[in-house]
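Our consortium's second objective concerns turning raw sequence data into structural hypotheses that experimental partners can test. To show how far this objective has progressed, the report includes one record in full. It was chosen at random from the queue rather than selected for favorable results. The single chain below, 621 residues long, was entered without modification.
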Amino acid sequence: MAKVAINLSTGALQQAEVIVGIDLGTTNSLVAYIHPEDKKPIAINDQGRGTIVPSVVHFAQNGETLVGTEAKDYLITDPANTIYSIKRLLGKSYRDLGEHKDYFGYKIIDDDSEGLVKVRVKDKFYSPIELSAEILKELRERAEHSLKTPVNRAVITVPAYFNDSQRQATRDAGKLAGLEVLRIVNEPTAAALAYGIGIDPNEEKTVAVYDLGGGTFDISILSLHQGIFEVLSTNGDTYLGGDDFDRAIINHWISENQLVADTINQDKNLSQELRLKAEEAKKVLSSQEVYTSNINGEIECHLERHTFERLVAPIVARTMENCRQAMADAKLKPEQIDAVIMVGGSTRVPMVYDAVSEFFGKPANNSHNPDEVVALGAAIQADILAGNRKDILLLDVTPLTLGIETMGGLMDPIISRNSKIPTKAGRQYTTSVDGQVNMKISVFQGERDIVKENRKLAEFDLKGIPAMPAGFPKVDVNFILNADGILKVEAIEVRSGTRQEVEVKPQYGLTDEQVEQMLMDSITHAKDDVSARMQIEARSTAEQMLYQVERFVDKNAEHLTEEEVALTRKNVQNLKNVLASGGDKDAIYGAVDVLEAQTSPFAERVMQISIKKAMSGKKID
């Protein structure tokens, strides 16, 4: 059994350094910090452009990348090169998107796998991590310009329901933007901090946080005890929010103007113009009774508040059902909730406020700007991590990320740096080749994307995996880190129950200087590391595609025409040539895209033939 050290010293942070709080939102993002004089959180408004930065990225014809308000203007004029709602794609595969894939006005690549989605813009391929990094970069630059000081560290918020993959994608985006992400904080926890809940370590409360943003809704029930927030339950819908209010308005206008919905969907410019008009109407109707406008003097955009409320009533009702479920999961009744907090711009709709207050039987608290409250709370959390708030309990945290080696020599983080301990986290993996019966688990500590730059802690083999086709075995790898710094790593093959584990015990340690050096190296090499990771991931995707396609053609040649086989072999060879020549990730994904587009039609046809044979009782391979 390996016995190596894990140093749990947190490392000192310089109090003079500004650590910002960032709300990376689906529709809008913003950055906040603690004012050095009055010690209050404040959202940064750089050059009077407002605190809100639309979460939109536009790739201009001249190669320039625009972010925020400037990019939002291109949603109508150049939708194919203007990316929005990136947060919905973080940590997601194409299959995860399901029926929602047509919602986006830009090209999302379908590699028909569990791999993470890619967005194609002209001849380049971007991951949601890269696109999110552009938004974070803009927020960082605004903070640096406004505060006149370098900003290298941040706390970033995520929804409470974000899984480990989505949280790690957010952390990676921060790293690519040149930020050391000190902690990923749940949005409802940040909102509660902004309202002063959790500042007093002796306070005990049960809080409901109703968060209705532009693209997502979630209701979280939090328990606060001795300065520690615990998420009792969370519920919601990752595809429900203000955007759905807008869509209800659009559908109403389409009906009123007797337009053809399919025509609108195909005309991306008109559909975006309708979307922006609907968003404007929604905002106006929060304070007025009537909204009137038009598009090109032809399409009438008229809406009264009572009609609007009738249109969105089913959407609001869905959020109330989520609230009921969250309360049931927490085993609580509305009268046991001490405070109800409103978060997200869509809570400005009077009907929403009334429905929430009625459900919980008490007035909801919306005294803070609902757009800013999460970022303000993140800034408070950043101030706590900076050591500037001695009255708040900060539990011991891990000084460096713990993870395992994956294909291509990449570090896959399991427990992120600055995670509170004790803690437990895990991920599921599978095999990459047919019949694989062993899997090597190598445990590393460090912040670099390439494992050879990190510190190896332990290694063991999970043996006895049932021989199955690649992708079928499901292996859970769990890290359990106790309060004494002892890390237990266990690997379990889900189908067979085969398991193996190892304990990594403190025996010799890293000095604070070594920890700091590892952190500095991760920041200095962040861009190169992420580029290397994405190049390796592109090659892995291509190799898996080649393996699957060649295997498919060999097994199903009888169902394919000579032309299909010849073209497939040509595109396979093209992809192999790109790999052999050391092509960059865009060239690799381009060749993968061509092969996938060419093989998808006949793959679907063969699948239909297989289904017919199966239904007729004939055995198929």
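The partners drew two points from this record. Residues 1-15 have pLDDT under 50 and may be disordered. The chain has four domains: 19-195+370-385, 199-367, 402-514, 528-615. Both points have been shared with the crystallography group to help prioritize constructs.
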